[in-house]
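Sample A.
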Amino acid sequence: MIFDAGALMFGPNEEGSGYGLFCTRSSIVAEVVVMQVAGWHVEVEFDEDETHTRAAALLRLRDDTELRGKGHATRNPADPEEHRIGEELAGGRALMDIAQQLTAKGNAEAKTLR
């Protein structure tokens, strides 16, 4: 038992699939479902000169798949040199490239489940 507040107790449910809030004189009051946490690792690198910014992005998925995306931005010569803006544009485009690949991968895998 993790928590005991008089007539209410918090602990594992009878099936062992989660935790619940129980009343000692009644049945389950509420049940908490334990969820698995997932994470992805993303890397974005930039290569810049006076007018061009190139971005290369890498996404590593839990199934060890690596998706790579590329993006490019060109600064108008009349605009001031602000590398941050070129990085945001090129980086966003590289991530959109990965987003399209990831969507296609998910759609293909979903079709195999039908």
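Sample B, a different protein:
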Amino acid sequence: MTSRATPRPASPPDSRPSPRPTSRPSPRPAPEGPAPEGPAPEGPAAERTAHRRDLLAAGGAALLVAVAALVGTVIERANGSLHVNWPPLYASWSPHLGPGTPAALAVAVLVIVHGPSLAARLSWRRLVLSGWAAALAWTGALALIDGWRTGIAGRLTTAYEYLTVIRRFDDLGPALRDFTHHILNNAPDHWPAHVAGHPPAAVLTFVGLDRIGLGGGGWAGIWCLTAGTSAVAAVLIALRALTDEPTARRAAPFLVLTPAAVWVGTSADGYFAAVAAWSLALLALAATHPTLPRLPLRGAPVPAAAALASGLLLGLTCYLSYGLTLIALIAAAILLLTRTARPLPFLAAGALAVAAVFTLAGFSWWEGYQLLVERYYQGAAAVRPYAYWVWANPACTVLLIGPATVAALRRTLTATPTALRGLGPSAGPLRAPTARLAVLLAAVLLAVLAADLSGMSKAETERIWLPFAVWLPAACALLPTARHRPWLTAQAVPALLINHLLYTGW
């Protein structure tokens, strides 16, 4: 509310007006409105050079995909050791149209044409909710290209998936205590691949849906679509807290129109990605609360509650997927950027509470992980060549994040060395949004690199790495706003081609 000034008494008729005060009043906070046009403009020549480098980066990434496809096809035809039909993706050649085709094309056109202007014009709350809704529309339309049954309702009912073992959890206590006894392939009644490959929180999610009357593949698919696409809202909130609102607004259309939506809509890993993203978003809010100008939602939690909720979700993330312990690298980057350890006790308390619940119920995370490694090498991983997948996995990631993100990451990596030097003990807090974004995304890329070098992600990384991939399109905030529509088109085309030419089954 704007305060009124106290009226002054009228001056005598012959008196002169008082001199204007020399000190200016404090400026009022700017209202929420359109975001600035973009990053600090460069000269025309410098921008043309940067654009050429962007195109070279995107072209180099496309070449990497082509080489991975060519070399992978030769290897697979020679000895079948890759265990994928369309390397480097776990997919089969299957050109087709479907009921989702018109909707996917319409959503793509709407986001390309109107996304950048709406992202600049909408109020913040509406932008967050609209981003989630648009991502849900885009992801759902892509999934429906394969039809309701094949694209959504049947995804989690195959022999590898969670819904095949729901009845084995009717007696929850013994099922959890006995969980690790069924991980190995040679164990009696061994779990299907995805159940064995994850801690029990993954399958318990679908057990819970079944218990409340939302059983079956249709509800499971809707859950994964709805929860998975909420990662867009979480990333937007985190970006606003850690960089600034204009940066988050410029990134919004790219977070929506990402090729990763192809896999968010076909696997439970999209749901895992959203849980991890909300954990990090709440941590960002907790760490920046004293300086956050306006919280993104009414009734937002105090920093301690946000940090505790972040810890609970972080703990859940680790019990959804063993590999997502790498999310801790991104959490550490958030604390480093905000130069605070205040949320740590609450974060640790929340994560440890989740671990305690599962441990007391009889499941040992560490024992499960060790048995998973053994199970992993009982299957296709025993013959899948590390020498191929260690560089073909990044080719999968290119298809996952799209050419615009590759080009933007080139700009991010260019800014990273300077940003990291600014984090030295003698330096003050990083204030430039570009530098803060660079540090955040460098942590994401470091997590991807660790996952790649571990050898525990040989193939299928277009699904497994979704929790990291949902953050990378944020780099597109660094692309010039005048080129956003062409780059958004470059994002939509690969997603449409992949879902119309391939069947990305699990």
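Observation for Sample B: Residues 312 and 350 are 4 Å apart (CA to CA).
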